[in-house]
Design a protein that fits this description.
Layout lengths: L1 H21 L4 H27 L12 H9 L12 H16 L4 H26 L4 H12 L2 H6 L6 H19 L5 H15 L11 H9 L5 H30 L2 H9 L9 H14 L18 H5 L1 H22 L5 H21 L4 H4 L4 H14 L4 H15 L1 H4 L6 H4 L11
Helix pairs in contact: 2-5, 4-5, 5-6, 5-8, 6-18, 6-19, 8-9, 8-10, 9-11, 10-11, 10-16, 15-16, 15-18, 15-19, 16-18
Length: about 425
């Protein structure tokens, strides 16, 4: 039995090594991934530290519980992050932030490093995922930079909240799905992919939608010739993700009670959200505009659909929004025409749809808070374009710099950090889940 397991392990390791060689994943790529990890960690550590220095109040940034989270972590009350909602976030703080605090690192610095390190790991994993999907280093780096500078992500990754940890875990899960999806290990592929996604879902449940990525990966591997096999392995992946996610959540809930879930349902959830015109209009505006580009230089806790004309008032912001739409549409069209990208495109669209539907039901007012969670899916929608036309990467890199100039300042440039200024009555948001 032990010898059989060892033989399988050696075979799988050889297949992974062969995959890296086939994709020309060489030493320089690992150096680039390491550089992304370091640069992103330093950049977001700085932004997080500056943000903490502003003494923000809860719900002022897209409904995030930033002050509460900071207060609990800085005073070693890590369980306050929500064991029934974000259990893996508690684990991350215990593994990374708590030791730093124990060593005497001041809370603002320790917390900034802890959250930023997760973001850096996630962005490095996203780069490796793109490389394994066939993109060369230039296009892969430019897409990672673009995703990092999207408005929803660069903002939520710069505040003390669990959603940046969720996105980082999603990126790692996508890397694992990409690796196991390219080698032949049968049902084990599905189980490993599901377990990886479960890790992300334990940071935040809707991340479980990324289990669908396994279907697209395996369909693309077969060049579209084995949809039944892809569906079978994806079913194993989705089942494993749900099972692994459900067990710890149910155990914790059985211990502390189901009051948290019941309270959230009663406070937030309503099927009527799907039939409310203003809610749907705000959601559509977030999906296609606010998630990517800040509509103005001022931060607000929430953006409304009637602010779309702000993009016309600012040529650069309007250009940036149209640039995102052009890249996404071009990527989708290119991917649907390719037998090695079609499954990924369909699965990413499904993932974004599932995440949006979940939050329309639960907390549509805080949709901007959750928009960063579909950043990896958006980047994989654009990826087929750069896989087909790699010479576009300098233009995409320049576009990422434009987004950095437009999307980075609003969070830290707010002149009046009061709740009434950032979240007036017409923008009221109840907070995130």
């Amino acid at each position: 039995m032990i010898m059989t397991v060892r033989a399988h392990f050696v075979e799988w390791k050889n297949q992974v090594c062969n995959l890296f060689r086939e994709r020309n994943l060489i030493r320089q790529d690992w150096i680039v991934a390491s550089a992304i990890l370091v640069v992103a960690t330093l950049f977001f550590t700085w932004r997080l530290y500056e943000f903490i220095s502003l003494n923000p109040v809860d719900n002022s940034v897209f409904g995030a519980d930033t002050a509460e989270n900071y207060g609990m972590i800085s005073t070693h009350r890590y369980g306050g992050l929500g064991p029934s909602k974000h259990p893996a976030a508690i684990g991350w703080t215990l593994m990374v932030i708590a030791p730093l605090q124990f060593l005497g690192v001041p809370p603002p610095v320790a917390i900034s490093i802890g959250f930023a390190l997760a973001v850096g790991i996630g962005l490095a994993a996203l780069f490796l995922t793109l490389r394994l999907r066939g993109l060369t280093a230039g296009p892969a780096v430019s897409l990672v930079a673009l995703g990092a500078m999207s408005y929803a992500f660069v903002t939520i990754a710069s505040v003390v909240d669990t959603y940046s940890l969720t996105v980082a875990a999603v990126c790692v899960a996508l890397l694992i799905i990409t690796i196991v999806g390219q080698i032949s290990i049968g049902w084990v592929s599905g189980a490993l992919a599901g377990a990886a996604v479960a890790g992300a879902a334990l940071f935040n449940l809707p991340a479980a939608a990324y289990a669908v990525a396994s279907w697209g990966t395996w369909l693309d591997k077969s060049r579209g010739s084995d949809p039944r096999g892809a569906t079978r392995l994806a079913a194993i992946s989705i089942g494993a993700a749900l099972a692994v996610t459900a067990v710890p959540v149910l155990l914790v809930s059985a211990w502390i009670g189901f009051g948290v879930q019941t309270g959230l349902l009663e406070r937030y959830a309503s099927i009527s959200h799907f039939f409310d015109g203003k809610t749907l209009a705000d959601t559509i505006a977030t999906i296609f505009a606010f998630a990517h580009v800040a509509p103005e230089s001022t931060l607000f806790c929430r953006y409304l659909w009637n602010e779309l004309p702000q993009y016309a008032a600012s040529p650069l912001r309007g250009l940036a929004m149209l640039g995102w739409l052009a890249l996404i549409v071009s990527g989708i069209v290119t991917g649907l025409r390719s037998i090695v990208w079609r499954g990924t495109v369909v699965s990413m669209v499904a993932i974004i749809g599932a995440i949006v539907a979940f939050y329309v039901y639960f907390a549509p007012q805080a949709m901007q808070l959750y928009a960063g969670q579909w950043m990896p899916a958006t980047i994989l929608l654009i990826a087929p374009l750069l896989a087909a036309k790699p010479k576009l990467w300098p233009a995409v890199a320049a576009f990422a710099l434009l987004n950095a100039a437009l999307n980075g300042p609003p969070l830290l440039n707010s002149q009046v950090w009061t709740f009434d200024a950032l979240c007036p009555a017409d923008r009221a948001v109840n907070g995130g889940l």
